[in-house]
Amino acid sequence: MTDYVDPAPLGGPEAAAPEAAPPAAAQRVVARRRPRLEVWLAFALIIADQVSKAAVRAYIPLYDSVEVIPGLLNLTHALNTGAAFGFLDHLDFAYKAVVVAVLATSALAAIVFYAMTLGSETRISRLALTLVVAGAIGNLIDRVVAGAVVDFVDFYVGTWHFWAFNVADTCISSGAVLLIFDMLRTGSHVPSPA
Question: What are the b/e assignments for 125-139, b being 16+ CB within 10 Å?
């Protein structure tokens, strides 16, 4: 009795499969070149930040307020020449706008580099870093173009006011909270030795 030999590898329909592989591989390469969801989200958040700041500049005179919720929320046109939430705002020194912009750019570059090392399985961290990057870019645009960031959300209770902030600051803060949550949840993103 002779052993059965499948004729397909010699010239059947399956023999053409290796030639069909390159189009699938090419599709994967094209898919990798498409911007990820994080890029589109960051772009949308940067646009929302810039549009909201432009509306404040256009409709609310500098240092004026519009009451939104009495006793809780105003829209106030303020300028922040310092870092987040007014840090360094009242400190004046030569080339302050340049120093703050360079610091922001350096931090942004470090965050983008770190985000590029994350795998797709770290979705919460990728979302968190997307929020932080979008916020940093939104505020950096203001620093480079105008030398100061427009802040306008003014929460208050009685005479106590929280620091004025904007959409970019909200993104940065939300991203930082998400990143801390993810790090506590998973322990770390440093790969364990194999």
Answer: bbbbbbbbbbbbbbb
